Each structure stands twice: as structure tokens, then as C-alpha cells.
Amino acid sequence: MEVQVHQVEGVKFSVNARTQTIICDQPQENGGTDAGMTPPELLLASLGTCAAYYAAEYLRTRGLATSGVSVSVTSEKLKGPARLGNFRIRVNSPVPLTTEQSEALMRSVEHCLVKNTLLSPPEIKVELNVEQGAETMAGTCV
After folding, report:
1. Are residues 7 and 27 in the same domain?
2. Taking the CA atoms of the chain, what radius of gyration do you get in angstroms?
3. What is the spatial distance between Cα 12 and Cα 16, in angstroms, rounded to a whole number?
4. Are residues 127 and 88 in the same domain?
5. How does pLDDT run across 69-126, given as a tens digit for each residue?
6. Is residue 65 located within the same domain as residue 127?
7. Which domain holds residue 83?
8. Where are the transmembrane segments (predicted)?
9. How many Å apart are CA 121 and CA 3, to the nearest integer?
10. In angstroms, rounded to a whole number, what is the distance separating the alpha carbons of residues 122 and 120?
11. If pLDDT is split at 50, 70 and 90, which confidence band does 137 have?
């Protein structure tokens, strides 16, 4: 998987994946034009859409519902270092479920790739390419 991020202007960026493009921006009080979600909001959106996918697939494959799933995701901004934490995913089923179905749906959502990635922190390497020089600086963050 890969995405490409390009600065549009100021703190507004375009994000491209395959043939899709979204805009990431800051609210006006942070120097942006509020033309798109902020990076932390995109992270919550990724987590929420992943959970929604697994919930919708559970309902679809069991013939319970083909639309109407909704999910909300919240988190808190923590310090030392600055980061998001205390994530809460709330899945709303569009149809009534038995206790067994509710438990199975939640087990399905537990398979969310994004959630599992956050629970098992990956190695993240940051590389810097300087256009004027031939050198690439690399560092590792965990």
C-alpha cells in the first residue's frame, strides 16, 4: 500500500491513493482554510471506516442487513509525547440483534486491520530526501 502526499498551499495537502484523492487541511484557527480533515481526524476516519467495513460485512454475509451501519470514533489528545489515545469505537447496527449476533459482530470488528495496527505499534522509518543534494537522511521512530 502507498499514498502520496503533496503540499497544495500553506497547510493544505492532497493525498493520493490509486485513483483517489482527498484533501487534508487545518482549521482556520491553525492557519488553514478548513478544506479537509486534519491528520488526526483522518486517523479516526481510517479506524472508523475499517470497523464499519467489518461490521457491515458481518451483517451482509449473514443476511441481516445490506446498509445502514454507522460508527463513531473518539479519542483524546495526550501529551508526553503529543499523541492520540483512549480511542472509543461505537458501532451502531441498523437492525436488532440477538445477544449471540451482537457478540459475533463485535468479534468481527476486532479483526479491523487499522485497529490491530494501532494495538501492535509498527516500526516507522522516517527518511528525508533533500532536492538539492544527493544524500538521503534516514532515521527510525518506534
Report:
1. yes
2. 19
3. 13
4. yes
5. 999 999 999 999 999 999 999 999 999 999 999 999 999 999 999 999 999 989 999 9
6. yes
7. 38-141
8. none
9. 19
10. 6
11. low
Q: For position 106, what pLDDT does the model report? A: 98
Please provide residue 99's backbone torsions phi and psi, each rounded to the nearest 5 degrees: -60, -45
Global pTM? 0.87
Domain count, the chain: 2
Q: Give the pLDDT confidence score for residue 85 in this predicted structure.
A: 96
Distance CA(82)–CA(77), nearest Å, equals 7
| Same domain flag for 24 and 49 | no
Residues 113 and 80 in one domain: yes
Q: How far is CA 5 from CA 12, 14, 57, 85, 87, in A?
A: 10, 6, 30, 25, 25
Residues of the chain above pLDDT 70, percent: 93
Whole-angstrom distance, CA of residue 69 vs CA of residue 12: 31
Nearest to 12 by CA among 40, 29, 34: 34
